[in-house]
Amino acid sequence: MSEETKVIEIPVYLTVRELAQLMDISPIDVIKQLMSSGIIATINQQIDYETAAIIATEMGFEAREETPLVAEEADEEGPMPLWERLYAREEPDKLLPRPPVVTVLGHVDHGKTSLLDAIRRTDVVGGEAGGITQHIGAYQIEHQGRLITFLDTPGHEAFTAMRARGANTTDIAVLVVAADDGVMPQTIEAISHARAARVPIIVALNKIDKPNAQPERAKQGLADAGLVPDDWGGDTICVPVSAKKRIGLEDLLEAIILVADSAEIKANPDRPAVGTVLEGRLDRSQGPTATVLVQNGTLRVGDALVAGTVCGRVRRMLNDDGNPITEAPPSTPALILGLDDVPTAGDIFEVMRDERTCRAVAARRIKDDEAKVTMTVRTLTLDNLSQSIRQGQAKELNLIIKADVQGSIEPIVNSLQALGAEDLKVNIIHAATGNITESDITLAVASHAIVVGFQVTVDSAARRMSENEGVDIRLYDIIYKLVDEVELALKGLLEPTYVEKVVGRAEVRATFEVSKVGRIAGCYILEGEARRNARARVLRGEKELYDGHIGSLRRFEKDVREVRTGFECGVGLEGFYDLEVGDIIEFYVMERES
Ligand code: GDP
What we know:
six-stranded mixed sheet; 16 helices; globular
């Protein structure tokens, strides 16, 4: 039927080969068509629906997006998580108000945990005082007949780590500032993290019971950081509280309801549930358990769901007081039993029509995860920004600035902001003093930002994470050089220079014919390592026979990312099968010259 109408259903993303198969034409023709649209792609490269649809249309097909049920992998690509996309498709008249979900942020020891505990104890409807309350990553309280959900893992690290995984759980941030200590470095960080997530901030000025509390001084610090308190004529609600003496808690809850009401926090309770896994645990007696936050729809006992690559059916469900419940409407945290395995925190869960569908989706995700091993994920770099500006795609540049001293920040921020134009905005997501840390990288991942350091270094954990996540870090010692380079990138003029670096050498010790794949070399790694993402060169004596991509890298039939010195592996080269015993395969990467 599809041949008659020439309609093809295209998933959110697929490889060039898969697209060719859908259209029943040669991949070469697809590659040619892509090239004429200015896109250089290899046969195994993933392309997105939009690109595929353009190519298909140009080749005489009518493209339709495949049912979103199994299209969730786009989460990796776009900043909009699955549940938000589904939510965006909701008809407005189906949306009803739901409780706000609140996260508590702030500097260490300013009283985040104490405040969360104190608020929990204000709840008269929930468990009796002294009753056993379960820690399930979130709790709900009732205030004047209205529910509020609190995520009880405080801190911006956890908050942004969730966002970096595509989960967007929070509606309102409560920023705790100790009145005796004022605005501190992590307060500034927390403000930037909340702002980057476009979450409204309410300030809880804590510890006002202390004799040395200086609330006005703290407010000055907040105003300097751009949060002008309401009683100073600004629009940041600032509530004086004491978590210890239980002062001002009602006012704080009042403020939360006020902000929630102006933010139109809604969901459709009348649809299958979608939400985020807050925690996963293996319980000795109960098996895998997960605490989830339902964000849209209603979760019910008996529902089949998939969370990341974990499937199951909700056998039992408990609320935050440890009581069994049969359904969980939007913004409800719940502990669920009945999953096959422990899901990962931050994964999005979704109810499907039956367990079979769940398994199909999970299987597809596992397959895609394996395929992703072969892709270098690069979120955003100054170089590829330049490229996408040339192609007219980029609309903004998000930057995180770290500098050695406060005095450097202002001129850098001012110069960079001045580079922005109407159609190309420069957003400084966060600017602070200090070395580049993991927290900066997490924020960069969550906000698709580049990290710029001025006379600072990079923590080793941050370096590792930036490499894994593909975050670009640029370090400078001279302000004008920093500004010049960003300016060049914004003008689409930055041409990166690359140098070759050999990462490993292997000797071919045997060759095998593998049907459909061609000849595979059984290799021994002589030095360095073989990397799946590297390029390879085949040397026979003095002669170079091949220079190109690696088709496969395997150990014991399993695709692997890398193989180290002294180990054996199977190597397949893309389009080159003339391997012989004794050949040397040299693995190399192109590194950006700094
Ligand atoms: P967190 O690191 O932000 O979670 O801070 P904690 O909740 O662990 O609190 C740090 C310290 O401040 C603890 O010793 C608390 O007892 C104390 N603290 C928290 N809130 C208050 C308060 O309102 N008044 C006073 N005096 N001490 C507080």
